[in-house]
Write a structure and sequence with these properties.
This protein is mainly alpha-helical and about 325 residues long. The protein has a single domain, classed as Rhopdopsin 7-helix transmembrane proteins, CATH 1.20.1070. Helix content is about 70%, strand content about 5%. It contains twelve helices and five strands. The chain has a three-stranded mixed sheet with strand order 4-3-5. A two-stranded antiparallel sheet has the order 1-2. The longest helix has about 35 residues. It is globular and about 65 Å long. About 0% of the residues have low confidence.
């Protein structure tokens, strides 16, 4: 445990942390390593496939799939902030992470998480316009709107992360350097601090709450209006067809928002450390993995180009 004294003898300074989230039976380390490596490679391959399909297939070069391509890129960055370190810890048994590395990991993880929140809300708005105002779609979702959405997406996430990271790492850490988690996240680090964390909790709760809840409310409003519009369609076939265009996105939204609201908005005293780790696995690992699977296998517009890409790959392998 690397803890150094400061000029004030009553305080000590932590220079590194120990990530204790996967401190389990060593006999299971190999299994977790294999599963973790497989899920990481599958996530990378799936999201890169979506980006490739959108770039090479003209039928997918629409505003919705433009946003989906950005989501896949964010998912790759999002999972890459934590997964390589997790794999290294499982492989080497070295659970240490330096103070600077921990701060950087939190910054990028929270930044990409906030970016995804805003991006999912933008995708919900796109579906609302496409379904409820199809005749005005090209007017309401044009290049100018695209640029504004992207500016908002890539500004809000990093700004939120800068505030949260600054508040958390302005605290003192001295009594212990063992983080009861498998990566550097806001709740476990607040619990670890020996400072008065009330102000930091209020700031992180308010800022993160705005970044999470506001896009969630906008997304929810979009789907309420979509459902209201769909129910006016006379035929059952027409309703199913319309719902199928936004079903994949809604699945991702339910999983992602449900887990992060539980972690960052729900009072931390209401759940245990084990529950925090389990929920974190869902939004930090499972959601990026499910994103390409849901969009590829539940979306007929993607299934066609995906099948052609596989056929082309098999043909090239033969010759």
């Amino acid at each position: 445990m690397d803890i150094r004294p400061t000029e004030n003898l009553n305080q000590i300074s932590v220079t590194e942390f120990l990530l204790m989230g996967f401190s389990i039976d060593p006999n299971n380390q190999t299994l977790l390593l294999v599963m973790g490596l497989f899920s990481y490679l599958l996530t990378l391959a799936g999201n890169l496939t979506i980006i490739t399909l959108i770039r090479i297939d003209q039928h997918l070069q629409t505003p919705m799939y433009f946003l989906l391509g950005k989501l896949s890129f964010v998912e790759i960055c999002y999972i890459s902030t934590t997964h390589p370190k997790i794999l290294w810890d499982l492989l080497s048994g070295d659970k240490t992470i330096s103070y600077i590395e921990c701060a950087l990991q939190m910054y990028f993880f929270v930044a990409f998480g906030g970016t995804e929140c805003v991006l999912l809300s933008a995708m919900a708005y796109d579906r609302y316009v496409a379904i409820c105002h199809p005749l005005h779609y090209t007017l309401l979702v044009n290049k100018t709107v695209h640029r504004r959405l992207l500016v908002a997406t890539w500004s809000i996430g990093p700004l939120n992360s800068t505030i949260n990271t600054a508040m958390v790492f302005s605290l003192d850490f001295g009594q212990s350097n063992e983080i009861n988690h498998f990566f550097c996240d806001i709740p476990p680090l607040l619990c670890l601090s020996c400072s008065d964390i009330f102000i930091s909790q209020m700031v992180t709760f308010t800022v993160s709450g705005c970044v999470i809840i506001l896009p969630f409310c906008l997304t929810l409003l979009s789907y309420i209006l979509i459902v209201s519009s769909v129910l006016k369609i006379c035929t059952a076939h027409g309703r199913i067809k319309v719902f199928s265009t936004c079903g994949s996105h809604l699945t991702v939204v339910r999983i992602f928002y449900g887990t992060i609201i539980y972690t960052y908005i729900w009072p931390s005293a209401a759940h245990s450390v084990e529950e925090d780790c389990l929920i974190s696995v869902l939004y930090a690992i499972i959601t990026p993995l499910l994103n390409p699977l849901i969009y590829c296998f539940r979306n007929k517009e993607v299934q066609g180009p995906f099948g052609k890409l596989l056929e082309r790959a098999v043909y090239n392998c033969k010759f």
